[in-house]
Inverse folding.
């Protein structure tokens, strides 16, 4: 008789954020991810709720990757009494050392506006790192009654899928799955022998524009703007998207496909993340590794300037002539990009170039939807600049590629739970997985517990 293994979907179903799954066996309780629930606010009120399990009884916490919606509540877990082991790749740990303090800064800002206490402190972050152990990709590690292997998810640097094997059966937690092939990272590894799977579904109901056109479109938009004498403002997330764009600009400039103009990376966080990327250059795909062997420093090129202080940031506007400004946040919900948008939105020569999904209600989405005037920090700003979007740089698999990914293990799969997506997206993917590849796909409810035969 096999013993009992269960999964409880504590959070991170029916929404793309707040990943938190409880994997329980007779040997003890384990968590996969401990992320922030994010909506219109950076930190939704629901994050303050007590965890739906006895925090002190959790033995292990496995982290798939360093995005806030997968790591943002780790210090709260520690604050509430967790003293188990945190496991991740070395890359994810290094990125979390940059990301968690930044999450706290943003949380404090929001808490200050709402006049409430932040839900954890720097001490809790420090304590979390004392509990942290790393496992490299592909090294089989025994933790309690599981043999664990980490496989490259290809989503951001250090992102991993966790394979848990017990009694000859395998369950896979995918975390977020990369939009392979990507410019920088290796492809998502293929899994052919999973018995169970908990997967993401951010783009469960949509396909991306073809990847083959993304670099050509970037080149066209930049060259057209330079010809007009304008400035290109790129709102970009600090983790992954910024490094991808730097790499693309590096190639376009070195191959003389665009002229050498000043490129301002106006984000202290993105600068720190970029240096973590530099220190794990062995993780990049074969083509990038080859470029590095030939002596190309892929995050350095003529014209690139790192902008750290607020004063330097304000000085950018005084640079005459065409330039590229990369700044956060990626959806123009805050950060330094806002003051560049206020500066250049009224300029018909300039371009606001969006390279990621823009959620309904954010400034980026208003611009995409063709707003003639927008409200920025209490000011009406006329939109005369060109607004362009390139969606080929998404870091998530689209619907067709999610199906293909599960299809590799369809024969063996007993059940796949479709999580980490808006309800419409998860439900659509659940149905497609059943119809197209005939697997037992289930859309779980928040709080639901399922029992596995392993
Ligand atoms: Zn992610």
């Amino acid at each position: 008789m096999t013993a009992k293994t269960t999964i409880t979907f504590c959070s991170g179903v029916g929404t793309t954020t707040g990943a938190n799954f409880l994997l329980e066996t007779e040997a003890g309780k384990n968590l996969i991810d401990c992320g922030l629930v994010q909506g219109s606010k950076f930190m939704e009120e629901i994050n303050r709720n007590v965890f739906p399990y006895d925090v002190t009884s959790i033995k292990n916490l496995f982290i798939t990757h360093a995005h806030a919606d997968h790591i943002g509540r780790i210090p709260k877990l520690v604050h509430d009494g967790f003293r188990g082991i945190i496991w991740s790749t070395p890359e994810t740990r290094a990125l979390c050392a940059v990301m968690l303090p930044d999450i706290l800064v943003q949380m404090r800002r929001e808490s200050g506006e709402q006049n409430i206490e932040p839900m954890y402190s720097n001490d809790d972050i420090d304590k979390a790192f004392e509990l942290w152990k790393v496992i490299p990709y592909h090294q089989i590690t025994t933790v309690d009654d599981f043999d664990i292997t980490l496989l490259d998810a290809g989503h951001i640097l250090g992102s991993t899928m966790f394979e848990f094997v017990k009694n000859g059966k395998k369950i896979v937690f995918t975390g977020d799955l990369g939009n392979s092939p990507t410019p920088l990272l290796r492809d998502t590894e293929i899994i052919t022998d999973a018995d169970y799977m908990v997967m993401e579904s951010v783009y469960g109901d949509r396909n991306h524009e073809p990847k083959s056109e993304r670099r050509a479109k970037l080149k066209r938009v930049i060259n057209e703007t330079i010809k007009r004498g304008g400035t290109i403002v790129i709102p970009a997330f600090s983790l992954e998207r910024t490094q991808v764009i730097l790499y693309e600009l590096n190639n376009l400039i070195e191959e003389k496909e665009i002229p050498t103009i000043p490129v301002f990376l106006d984000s202290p966080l993105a600068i720190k993340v970029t240096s973590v990327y530099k220190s794990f250059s062995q993780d990049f795909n074969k083509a990038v590794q080859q470029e590095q062997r030939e002596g190309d420093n892929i995050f350095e090129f003529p014209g690139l300037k790192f902008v750290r202080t607020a004063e330097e940031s304000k000085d950018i506007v005084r640079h005459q002539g065409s330039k590229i400004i990369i700044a956060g946040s990626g959806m123009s919900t805050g950060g330094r990009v806002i003051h560049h948008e206020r500066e250049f939105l009224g300029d018909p020569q300039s371009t606001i170039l969006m390279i990621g999904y823009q959620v309904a209600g954010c400034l980026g989405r208003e611009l995409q939807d063709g707003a003639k005037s927008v409200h920025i920090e209490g000011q009406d700003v006329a939109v005369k600049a060109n607004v362009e979007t390139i969606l080929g740089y998404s870091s998530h698999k689209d619907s067709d590629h999610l199906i293909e990914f599960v299809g590799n293990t369809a024969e063996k799969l007993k059940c796949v739970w479709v999580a980490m997506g808006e309800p419409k997206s998860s439900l659509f993917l659940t149905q497609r997985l059943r119809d197209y590849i005939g697997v037992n796909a289930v859309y779980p409810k928040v709080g639901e517990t399922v029992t596995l035969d392993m």
User: Anything to note?
Assistant: The chain is about 30% helix and 20% strand. Residues 65, 67, 155, 176 surround zinc ion (CB under 6 Å). The chain has a mean pLDDT of 95. Residues 90-114 form the longest helix (25 residues).
